[in-house]
């Protein structure tokens, strides 16, 4: 019975029915605990954690991953131990603890390379590349993505291949290569649709919307975000819903759709940290600063931009810090503070130049 429930959980996981997956897994685990028969395997704990991760229940997921990690270290199961380390890295990523995430991904990579687990090596390299992308080390990131892509294609790992392509699309957007970005995301989207990866489809649509927004194709961007949000609701991906909401609210601002805009921003700012990471709160503060600036509420605007900048500095998120400085400069220019505006624009340009964010450099007239 326990094995049948576990298999049902696995089937639900592949279909993106993560609530059902957790329910089946935990029923299976309770039976094993009550009967005192087979011990609970670290793989089962890992699977439950992965389902919780997909639901955005990151603290709960981390509890399962840590339990699994402890068992694998005790019994010497190095293959599952490597998977646990990687999964803990994913949770630290969601907690915005990026250096901690990198540490766990690197520890996992050391093991997977040693035991020759090529599919896990590809996943590790992809995750490491994602961290370097966050630190604005884009060409270093692309190096990891390319190494991962070679392995994924060689072994036919379509899921990892699709993730890498989507990540490359994100980097090409930052580098101002919009057509290349859309091509990579489109190729990823095709794979994810064919493999039934609903979470992956949701993430691709988010990325496509971001690129289209940078190209000022706001109508198409909105369509992508709305489709992405529909999937997020279907699979109950709460943290992703909030990220998509920020993107939609930003479009509302650009198109002067002010009804409900302030309430939407406030909802994100007041959301518990379990469902909204600090990076999203910083983005909400930035959008709030822009809204106050439009109303000529200069002091409240400056306060919001400062809150956004402080968080992005603490996260070492130079790309988003520069965006905040750009919009703060625009606000100061409108308020008549030419010197303050010039300083913000200069700081933003220096960061964008250093990380080669060419799309934003064009906005600054470079």
Please describe the topology of this protein.
Blueprint: H1 2-14, H2 18-35, H3 42-54, H4 58-75, H5 78-94, H6 98-115, H7 118-134, H8 138-155, H9 158-174, H10 178-194, H11 198-214, H12 218-234, H13 238-254, H14 261-270, H15 278-294, H16 298-314, H17 318-335, H18 338-355, H19 358-363
Notes on the protein architecture:
By secondary structure, the chain is an all-alpha fold. The protein has a domain at 280-366: Tetratricopeptide repeat domain (Serine Threonine Protein Phosphatase 5, Tetratricopeptide repeat), CATH 1.25.40. Helices cover 83% and strands 0% of the residues. It has helices at residues 2-14, 18-35, 42-54, 58-75, 78-94, 98-115, 118-134, 138-155, 158-174, 178-194, 198-214, 218-234, 238-254, 261-270, 278-294, 298-314, 318-335, 338-355, 358-363. The longest helix is centred in the first third of the chain and has 18 residues, at 18-35. The N and C termini lie far apart (65 Å).
CATH level 1 name of the domain at 280-366 = Mainly Alpha
CATH homologous superfamily heading of the domain at 280-366? Tetratricopeptide repeat domain
Helix content: over 70%
Task: State the CATH architecture of the domain at 280-366.
Answer: Alpha Horseshoe
Structural class: mainly alpha
Secondary structure tally: strands: 0
H/E element sequence: HHHHHHHHHHHHHHHHHHH
Q: What general form does the structure show?
A: globular
Please report the distance between the alpha carbons of the first and last residues: 65 Å
Radius of gyration (CA) equals 22 Å
Query: Segments where pLDDT lies below 50 for 5+ residues?
Result: none
Largest sheet: none
Estimate the mean pLDDT confidence.
92
Instruction: Quote the CATH topology of the domain at 280-366.
Output: Serine Threonine Protein Phosphatase 5, Tetratricopeptide repeat
Give the DSSP E fraction (strand runs of 2 or more residues): under 5%
Helix tally?
19
